[in-house]
Amino acid sequence: VQLVESGGGLVQPGGSLRLSCVASGFTFSSYAMGWSRQVPGKGLEWVSRIYDDPGRTYYADAVKGRFTISRDNANNMIYLQMNRLKPEDTAVYYCATLGGYKGQGTQVTVSS
Q1: What is the pLDDT of residues 15-74, one digit of tens each?
Q2: Is the dihedral of CA 84, 39, 51, 10 positive or negative?
Q3: Which of 68, 77, 88, 105 is the most exposed place for a label (fewest CB within 10 A)?
């Protein structure tokens, strides 16, 4: 299993970023996928998940209405569109499977 994230960076509060993840090594379309995040000194937090059931998603309360997860099964990719970003969204974001695999992470920093 390999998961490779991209799209992180530095953005001002209120701005937007789109994270991407390409997956390989398993039957992507059959598995739920998601994004988690971690701040130094704190545990990993699920941000959003998208299931193999078409249209079924989960969002943490902290990001509901601001973040949108999507997937492209033809290209083994998932995305996280992050709008109206806040300083508290600053973290390393990981693409992950529910079975415990995750990528190397991409840093998102929200600061003026």
Answers
A1: 999 999 999 999 998 999 999 999 989 999 999 999 988 779 999 999 999 999 999 999
A2: positive
A3: 88
Hey, what are 37's tokens? 């995040």
Nearest to residue 35, comparing CAs of 109, 98, 86? Answer: 98
Give CA separation, 16 vs 11, 25, 82, 94, 110, in Å: 7, 30, 5, 17, 10
CB count, 10 Å around CB of 72?
13
Average pLDDT over residues 70-94: 97
DSSP code string of 50-67:
E-SSTT-EEE-TTTTTTE
Q: What is the pairing mode between strands 9-11 and 106-110?
A: parallel
Instruction: Using DSSP, state whether 2 is helix, strand or coil.
Output: strand
In the chain, the amino acid numbered 96 is A
Question: So what's the pLDDT on residue 52?
Answer: 86
